[in-house]
Amino acid sequence: MPGEILRIQQPRHHKAKVCIWADLEISHVESLMAANGPEEIKRILSDLFKLTDYHDNLASAILLDLYFYTVQFALDHNFDKEQLSAFFSIVKKTHKVCSETPFGNVEQCYEYFKELVLCHAVKRPPWSVNQFSPHQVKLITDYVLNTYFRHMKLYKYVFTPMVRLDLSMSYLGMPPTPPPSQVAEDEKPDELLEETEQADMEQEGGEEENTEEEPPQDEESPAHQELRQLITSQLNGEIEKLRSSLNEQIHLNDEALQQKLTLVDGGASGGKSSRNSSKSRKK
User: Fold this and answer.
1) Mean pLDDT value across residues 103-129
2) What is the pTM for the complete model shown?
3) Are the C-beta atoms of 53 and 60 separated by less than 8 Å?
4) 176-192, pLDDT tens digit by residue?
5) Are 92 and 19 in contact (CB under 8 A)?
């Protein structure tokens, strides 16, 4: 509905859980492993996740690339069927958490990603399973950090709505500002044309006259005058405080400099007197 204020999801913490076969079933994984090239893998993924418009829709193309390179990474490192399904779901769920809010939630996303990896790397059923070895955990972490999290702001730009802040201020003791008047939609163009012609004629007539009347100046309302006086007095007070603080600082610096000069002069005179006394003793 127009004028409706949408509720924007705030960053929040998500609880991770085992996600083998959550997004890719065993038949889907077998089809991906048996594919004859990148184009066939993309075709299978686009059919599974309804991204068939990736040729025309840039968001679908970006999401399809994310899924494709995730599958390609798993195939390049010889992941088995369970590992491929789990790794794909880890990346997909991390992206879902990232794109659920336009606000910054990189910490929540990374914590969720780490918990998802741990759920598939530690044998503690039913909360976690030993699906990935320590070496594979390191490979997965480095890959996701260097690909997805490095470009996380770009993914947010594409998959989250843009938020605009409308700031309104209210002053104590002042009435609220009325909304600006809106031009009526049914205003006729002929009336606007007549008003424009009349204004041009009045302007030409005013140029022919020798004496021109000065336009009346807008008078400020009492509320505006009171606000102006309040701001002026506040600024004057702050300026006086700054001036007194600066003068005090200059005075303290002068005193410190005078003390240093006195110590230097005293040391020099003391050295001369000591030299004179030593000379008199030698004589």
Assistant:
1) 91
2) 0.59
3) yes
4) 776 666 444 444 455 55
5) no
